[in-house]
Amino acid sequence: MKPNKLVQIKNVTRADACIQFLMNRPKTEMVGLGLIYGKPGLGKTTYASRIAFMRGYIYMRLESTTTPKSFAVDLLTALYRRFGMGEFIPSGTTNNLFKYCLKLLDDNPETVIVIDEIDYAFKHDRLLGSIRDIVDVTLTIVVLVGMQDARNKLAAINRHYFDRCNYFYEFKKVGKDDIRKIAKEVMEIPVDESVVNKIDFNCEGNLRKAVKIMYIIERAKATNPQLSIADLDLGRDL
């Protein structure tokens, strides 16, 4: 399979529309905060990381152990790298490190930050507040990426914070047209409707599972080029 492809399926084009909307917003009237969310396996993290790499955005992934200070360190490190300032950031308190971040972002207003696994921040008011401060104090665009209930959780935790979000997009299950498009872009065997139907029937709209099935089909065809896709048993591998 061909690696590092970001195929323009519906979820990708609609998530792109979120970023484009925030870029074109009246910057002095609206903050650049958006939320992309959805069930596991629909391609949110793949989209977030690859779009950041392709366009020079800053990609950050929160973890269960992320604290306000570790977030400030990680963000400042990413900003230093992004703006060619070297690998070694200043030391200091959480407050001072975060102020360095805000200063750099204020000096570079076109910056886009994608923060994956935002759900981990919902347990930490100060961490969530730090992210809010970025869009309140600077013109930076921040795109949050979370699980299917992220929108409702954000509304329940802090309505004022929720109201700052100027764009929401929920990743949907992939349909047959999307599967056909992905298969033809990433698979290294001829893709006909028997391949598309096999993937669509077995993946149940889950992109992660669809990609796994594509790999299984490629491997099976490499072993037996005469194999009928309709006869391929996926049960054991899935």
Can you tell me about this structure?
- The protein has about 240 residues and is of the alpha/beta class.
- The chain folds into two domains: about 10-170, Rossmann fold (3-Layer(aba) Sandwich); about 175-230.
- Helix content is about 50%, strand content about 10%.
- It contains ten helices and five strands.
- The protein has helices at about 10-25, 45-55, 70-80, 95-105, 125-135, 150-155, 160-165, 175-185, 195-205, 205-225, and strands spanning about 30-35, 60, 110-115, 140-145, 165-170.
- The longest helix is centred in the C-terminal third of the chain and has 17 residues, at about 205-225.
SSE layout and pairing:
Blueprint lengths: L9 H15 L7 E6 L6 H12 L2 E4 L6 H15 L11 H14 L4 E5 L8 H13 L3 E6 L3 H8 L1 H6 L2 E4 L5 H11 L6 H11 L3 H17 L15
Helix pairs in contact: 3-4, 8-9, 9-10
